[in-house]
Design a protein that fits this description.
- The chain is built from four helices and two strands, in the order E-H-H-H-H-E.
- It is mainly alpha-helical.
- Strands 1-2 form a two-stranded antiparallel sheet.
């Protein structure tokens, strides 16, 4: 006679299934800020204007992007998708904005080009750092499968 084997159905793990390690995220955010400041510095040295404020603004933008990513990681289901859209749209605004000023066309084009490179750098670096800062929890529902019953003589199996 066969003995029915009962298995408990798996249950959903309690609590969030991912967590963010803020140390690596913010270390990457600070590194991104340094890269953004250096991109802005290179752009300023090439174009020769708005030196100090522009470099600090680029570093600040990288730190704001890191804060935004941290918030999205903690609150939204697909944080990198939303972050990508926000960065693309913010970069578009930053690229178009210089053309609304009274600066000469060469300066407008140079600023737009630097802003485009900054947006790409900040977006890609922050997304890569965030991907490394997120850890997934393993489902530990307490479910343990029953081991198979051993065969005994006379159980109709040969």
């Amino acid at each position: 006679m066969a003995t029915p084997m009962y298995r408990e159905p798996p249950t959903e793990p309690s609590g969030p299934t991912r967590w963010v390690e803020p140390g690596p995220l913010w270390a990457g955010g600070v590194a991104t800020a340094v890269v953004a400041a250096l991109i802005a510095l290179a752009g300023v040295l090439i174009t020769r204007w708005l030196f100090g404020m522009y470099v600090l603004s680029a570093a600040g933008a990288a730190l704001v992007a890191t804060a935004l990513m941290h918030l999205l990681l903690l609150t939204t289901p697909r944080p990198q998708v939303f972050f990508g859209w926000i960065i693309v749209l913010a970069t578009l605004v930053a690229v178009v904005f210089p053309f609304s000023t009274t600066a000469p066309l060469e300066q407008k084009l140079a600023t737009a080009a630097v802003n485009l490179v900054l947006g790409i750098a900040i977006g890609t670096l922050t997304m890569q750092v965030a991907a490394r800062a997120v850890r997934r929890r393993r489902a530990s529902s307490g479910y343990q499968p029953n081991p198979p019953q051993s065969r005994t003589p006379g159980d109709q199996y040969r």
